[in-house]
């Protein structure tokens, strides 16, 4: 059994970006801006990690807090103004948002060249067409991690469990673009164990603690665990990790697998957005 340690891969990515920023000819620093409306513990934890990594590589970081009573129009105006700020190179809107806010309308207020989460229609279109762009961070990070460990997805049977706009759908598309044979499953898929057992690679992003059990996997498989849910303040993951890890060929650890890859890819996307702006000027 091999552990696919995302921390090792992420540290390489971050070190490379840090070197590029350090030796940049004009010494201008990229800036990542995070929009926060709902201050739940999970969101704050994710933001602190993003800020830490951004500052470690030499980026500037800005956290823009808004009260949960903000209206749809007010938030759209605020995000549009941030997008016009030439000192800001990457913008993300931290989820979740209050129930009265339409997140998709807010995200579309971000200039696509600053959409470092890869959620605008423009960046989704780039991903769909296989064009150069800023791709969704978690799926892109998973692809990077698999490449680092010499896992070639071409012609592999890959099962993606989950259909979210953040992970499941873009993950499926990126794998198709990489010539994998992909099966998309979800919580309503019938006889899902019959499907998962036949896979070469399983990527589970369903946010249901312990969903993928020992009975649903086979030897020689590679398992990527994405979904983290807090139950009574304790982080629970999508796989029954302890019972699976010594049975399969390889598995991403929890924590320390996909999480570091998501953050490092966000930082990488911000650097790419910064470089793109310099080329256009």
What attributes does this structure have?
three-stranded parallel sheet, Rossmann fold, 16% strand, 11 strands, 10 helices, single chain, alpha/beta, 281 residues
User: Whole-number average pLDDT?
Assistant: 94
What is the chains' assembly state?
A: single chain
Query: Within the CATH hierarchy, at the fold level, what is the topology of the largest domain?
Result: Rossmann fold
Q: Write the H/E string, N to C.
A: EHEHEHEHHHEHEHEEEEHEH
CATH superfamily label of the largest domain:
NAD(P)-binding Rossmann-like Domain
Indicate the structural class: alpha/beta
Number of domains: 2
- What summary fits the major beta sheet? 6 strands, parallel
Instruction: Give the strand order of the largest sheet, numbering strands 1, 2, ... along the chain.
Output: 1-11-8-7-5-6
Shape: globular
Task: Work out the strand percent.
Answer: 15-25%
Count helical runs: 10
Compute the gyration radius: what is it?
19 Å
CATH architecture of the largest domain: 3-Layer(aba) Sandwich
Topology:
Layout: E1 2-3, H1 6-22, E2 31-36, H2 41-57, E3 60-65, H3 72-84, E4 90-93, H4 103-107, H5 121-129, H6 137-148, E5 157-161, H7 168-177, E6 181-185, H8 192-196, E7 201-204, E8 222-225, E9 228-231, E10 234-237, H9 241-244, E11 250-251, H10 258-280
Parallel strand pairs: 1-11, 2-3, 2-4, 5-6, 5-7, 7-8, 8-11
Antiparallel strand pairs: 9-10
Helix pairs in contact: 1-10, 2-10, 6-7, 6-10
